[in-house]
Amino acid sequence: MADRYLNFTGTAPGRFLTRRLGLPQPARLHRWSPEHPALDGPLLHLTAGEPAQTTDLADLLARTGLDVRATADRPAAIVLDATAVADVPALAQVHAALHPVARSVATGGRIVVLGAPLSGDDHHQAAAQQALEGFVRSLAKETGRGRTVTLVRVAGPVAAAESTLRFLLSPKSAYVSGQVIEVAASDTTAPTDWSRPLAGRTALVTGAARGIGEAVAEVLARDGAHLVLLDIPSAQGELEALAARLDATALPLDITAPDAAERITDTVPALDTLVHNAGITRDRTLAKMPADRWATVLDVNLASVLTTTDALLKSGTLTRGGSIVATASIAGLAGNAGQTNYAASKAGIAGMTRSLAPRALAEHGVTVNAVAPGFIETRMTAAVPLFIREAGRRMNSLGQGGLPVDVAETTAWFAHPASGAVNGQVVRVCGQSLLGA
Ligand code: NAD
């Protein structure tokens, strides 16, 4: 379902009218395309205090291909290194660095703040570093014009954050804003070709026949992965057409089938990335919800994810250096009337992700992360009644719905072999929805 309002505000009369009436004026977001793969303009590198890894960060930023400067009139991005901020007086340097330039960031630009992990034994440092979260989330809400603001907490060598910074400083993260991402202190290896980081790797995407799953398949294929595409047998036609287009293997299979994991292993004995995308809704308020509607949603969205994950880790089908990306939802974080079953299943995904991630990495060398989409323009949301659909689209800092490709790009960043230091994260792809924590 096209966003007619966004199209209208993109026209001259639309701009005039919405400005006169004080209505939201969402910016048309710049997403990645082969013709337009990078942000347009220089990157401003700023510091607050005296960070320890300034040279390493400067080298990393130079590798993004952006023109890195210490001053710029109209930067396309700003990276503020606030890792050294350890007390309240030092927070003034965050203000001093960004206050003069906040308004100069180009439309659709990025502000990325680098922070440090919260100290367990220095409560002044923890207060100052936690303060950065409130700061970033507020700046993201006030910045407007399609700009995004994120906080990346770097626990070790900044090089481990390269895949994350490349993602955030590119059009691939157009719909990710107001997020806090933690990058652990672990070794990562840079790919030989950053434009095809998944070359030689195999990925399986569930629910791939349409919507977000189809976009995930397309983006992972673009990044070089060989794909196994799974969806229910009744979607076999769409699945096979997509598989033919992407030179992939179609696997028509209900993910809740008792032998699903075995069937997957029979089809693909060694898997690098597993994307749990299949999901359903069966909305009713709790008082009107029969047990079967509850059970179906919990089965597809959560139980099958746990069962196949456990089985594929145990059998060694998921190989070392691999990744699992699960799909949560902002409904699971914020709650949604009529979706007790769905929100429970999606909150469960976040719980699984956070608990399993450290063990899966230690025992199997596999990372576990989750995307939490907000309002994404798909058949699932096209079925939502008009008024609620329009509210869902506008109630976020970017004033518009996301596209399936936005979730797909975030999934690809998680699946990237150089993202090995990104583990246990639940990242919302929601344009900073006003719903949820
Ligand atoms: P969609 O309904 O367009 O596609 C879901 C796909 O999953 C379909 O192809 C369907 O056939 C498949 N599927 C359903 N049950 C299955 C099963 N038992 N086994 C195998 N495949 C199965 O949905 P979408 O909007 O693309 O959503 C994809 C994921 O993103 C879901 O997990 C959904 O909950 C989540 N999500 C979507 C939004 C949104 O705004 N669209 C928001 C938050 C979360």
UniProtKB/TrEMBL annotation:
List the InterPro entries.
KR_dom, NAD(P)-bd_dom_sf, Sc_DH/Rdtase_CS, SDR_fam
Domain Ketoreductase: from-to ranges? 201-374
This chain belongs to the protein called 3-oxoacyl-ACP reductase
* Gene3D superfamilies the UniProt entry points to: NAD(P)-binding Rossmann-like Domain
Q: Can you tell me which family this protein belongs to?
A: Belongs to the short-chain dehydrogenases/reductases (SDR) family.
Q: Which SMART domains match?
A: PKS_KR
**Which Gene Ontology molecular function entries are recorded, alphabetically?**
oxidoreductase activity, acting on the CH-OH group of donors, NAD or NADP as acceptor
List the Pfam families hit by this protein, alphabetically. Answer: adh_short_C2
Checking NCBIfam families in the record gives: PRK08261.1
